[in-house]
Specification:
It contains two helices and 17 strands. It is mainly β and 268 residues long.
Amino acid sequence: MSTNAAELDRLTQRWERFRTGRNSALASKDGWLTLTAFHWLPGSPAALPGMPGLWSSDGTTASLTASADDHLTLVESGEAVVGTISTELSDEESISWVSFGSVVVELGMRAHRYMVRTRDAQSPVLTSFTGVPVFGYDPELVVTGKFTPYDAPRNEAIETAHPEVPGVAKLVGEVSFELAGTPYTLAAEEGQLGSLVVSFHDASNEVSTSHWRKLELTKPRPDGSVVVDFNRTINYPSAFTDFGTCPAPVPGNTLPVAVEAGERDPRK
């Protein structure tokens, strides 16, 4: 697809605005770059590395016991935690539970087990962040695809960035497209406001890009056509931190070519 200079400049500027918004979102004080630890809660009250208080779970309820010297407060109310507090969550649910200093402790349930993750506004990953490294904008990597919906959504078991946390992808159909004259098909999930999201591996992974990436496509037009703009490919949080539980692509969502577009591996 040929693009004249004026159109290329317009498309590049629009992509650069997208990149500015993406970097701003990542740099937020409570974003993914603040993750500093992940721990499963033990069955009996015990200390966790770098965290005040005693933490535990009986499988149904998560509990925390603290003294005034622990300086723990409830995120929602700011009330000091003195004594024992407890709460119950559903699987895949998370809350910002307590805080100490610059750290907020996220309580969540993953794979029907309680876990905590710490988010530190002073995390070196956040404080040293100047933007995600990216490939330059390439208009040849903007193609028109065709969305074919399934008769009904399909749930497929997947791995995640955490080996002890299985995941499920809710697939709604397939997107077919061509790159350099070769046809490919990727299974898609539903995104926000009717958009589509594809997670995929490609031959650039672990070379110039992270372990896998994702791309949000436009909402399909009435004829099923969608814009597949690989320049907008982004990393999952697990590309930046070891403490993410990000979903891996479904088996089969692998492109045998190197898609050097969008975000690079931020750790290289």
